[in-house]
Design goal:
about 35% strand; about 170 residues; 7 strands; Aminopeptidase; alpha/beta
Length: about 170
Amino acid sequence: MPLIEGLALGSALIIAIGAQNAFVLRQGLADELHEFIQSSDHIFLVAGLDDRYGPYGKIGLALIEVRDSNWKIKLLLMSCRVMARGVGNILVNFIRQKAKEAKASLFADFIETDRNRMMYMTYKFNQFYETSRDGKSLILANDLSAIPPVPEYIELNTDDLDFLHGQSGGLAG
């Protein structure tokens, strides 16, 4: 994906669904995303979805901070039109599997709101647990055990990803 397309898409997704997932919107969001995409300390994923009825387009993104052997999901956004279909679980489990392969510990930042309960449940269904809480701000952790395989009826296309080198890319299913 070209950088400009990724920045525009990331900004649009954050604006469109950020409130649901408790991301604080700031001025200069595209510039900030550009820094993350270029950073060797971050993995920036954009997820798309096609099914038998046609393409849904880009439906989610993940921003993962990589520090030594610790990975932290800083931002996880999924379109509400696909959340009920379990797509968030597939993305989270993909990240879990890649962290396990990298022999990394996996954490996630999460801010509780009334609008992002479904994302909290996605984390909980995928064995994340609270390690700390400050009001509505939580840090979740995952022990990376019992990661389910991608269901047989799903084709996960990850050809352009290179997780071990901190590069960004797209994830299509």
